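Re: Re: ligand-bound prediction request (bumping)

Still looking for help on this. To restate: I need the protein modeled with guanine bound, output as structure tokens. Inputs repeated here so nobody has to scroll up.
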Amino acid sequence: MIVKETHRAEILDGRAAAAEIKSEVAVEVTVLKSEYGVTPRLAAVLVGDDAASAVYVRNKIRACEEVGIASDQLLLTATTTTDELLSVVVALNQNDEVDGILVQLPLPKQIDDSVIIEAIDPAKDVDAFHPTNAGLLAMGRPRFVPCTPAGIIELLNRNKIEIAAANACVVGRSQIVGRPIASLLLQRNATVTICHSQTRHLPHVTRQADILIAAIGRPAFIRGDFIKPGATVIDVGVNKVTDIDRARNYFAHEAERRIQAIEKRGYTLVGDVHPADADRIAGKRTPVPGGVGLLTVAMLMKNTLQAAKWRRGL
Ligand code: GUN
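Reply:
Sorry for the wait, this slipped through. Here it is.
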């Protein structure tokens, strides 16, 4: 009997890269403490009771503990007004002990996001959402770089995936991921295409990409016919799957484990890329969970360390 070996994409392990980055940060934090008596400090602000946001903030605080960064968690109620949150941000700006300020998004709908983001001192803006930091990045003179895009670059570099001269395609044009990752890839001499909801013949466009970045927030949207055979596919999406038939379709060899997760806690996670399709067609792909999300947290640690150094002229 001839058994045909089926191709399966190599998994780009976010956990390993994140662990490396965090241990590099931990070493630098130790040096900063012993040589300058400085402990970097992050203030994380969580407004309301969005369950996913609470998990993300908890993971960020835990990462601070792992690398020796001090942290404060500020919890505000879901009815907080723009003015109330603004005064919290102003106090954190003025507090010289605080190096990094993170306001977890999304904010409750009564709060004007841009008023809050623009109030954060750009020197403490470890998420790099302030227009000053976004503008410097767009000009090719990055200061702080948003954590998820910075993490994607680290993952590509640490896995020796060539960016220069590659065709890179970014699906999604958000302020947090799509636009900044496109800037970073361009700066590294990729030929960059940005796609969005009005792009014509999307699969034809994405199929030109050696590096395909999916950041649209739609479960398993990127199918096999969107992917160039052998491409590197980076999946930024985090979507809940509660339907067992859907999980069976998405996960192929992993289906049983995913279905057990749904039966146990009600859901499993899928990205914006159809994982079984990507396994068949891509050369390399990031998993969800265990991919880009872990890098986001690691890069927040790196940015907080950077803020602590820059604020002191180090
Ligand atoms: N919401 C989704 N991603 C992020 C992030 O990187 N930082 C913050 N503050 N909120 C987010």
